[in-house]
Amino acid sequence: MATPPRLIPLLQQFDFARERLADRLTGPVMDSGNGTDIEVPPMTDEEYLWEPVPDCWSVRRHAEGPGTGATVLVGAGDWGRDATPPPHPTPPPFTTLAWRLSHLSELLALRADHTNGSRTLTRDDHLVPGDAARAISVFDSGATAWRKALLDADDAALDTVGHSAYPYGSDPEDPFIETVWWVNQELLHHGAEIALLRDLYRARQR
Predict the structure, then answer these.
(1) Model confidence over 93-112: pLDDT tens digits?
(2) Contact 178/102 with Cβ under 8 angstroms?
């Protein structure tokens, strides 16, 4: 199936942001933005779980319970991500690299499932890793699944309200093309946050 022309720039933007974040997490180099490669050390488990300030929201072992201000740990496996039912705390808690990467991976994987999959997965079905290597792998899987959902969409799908039935956003009320745009900005802004946390962690070690 041919990719609808209006989807092409959004798909290219997604691919660019995904590759940039993946390289920023794994190294050994990444494009600085002007075509020059800069060295990037692979993310460690210590960095993945680093809490820059007190009372961060992060990912934690279910057996240990949620962190300060959180009431539940969402996610499958031994680990879960700090959360609370709406309304969310104001001001929002500071979230760790692990929290942000888990959130990003989950929204990609679940949106893919609720677009061209079983449409049944919940946050409690999504694996929340406690280590960097698995977290990167889970992100890659979610991004791959979402990209397939995009490639499966024709022009009619892009205009269909509720083509994505993802239950943790406005997707059921939005044309799919708006959901595609929203996911791109999620990837771009969380990717930038994660990159900044990597910079702060490196500066801290100095």
Answers:
(1) 999 999 999 999 999 999 99
(2) no
Q: Which domain holds residue 184?
A: 5-205
Please tell me the pTM assigned to this model: 0.95
Can you give the CATH number for the domain in which 145 is found? 1.20.120
Give me the number of domains the chain comprises: 1
Residues of the chain scoring pLDDT < 50: none
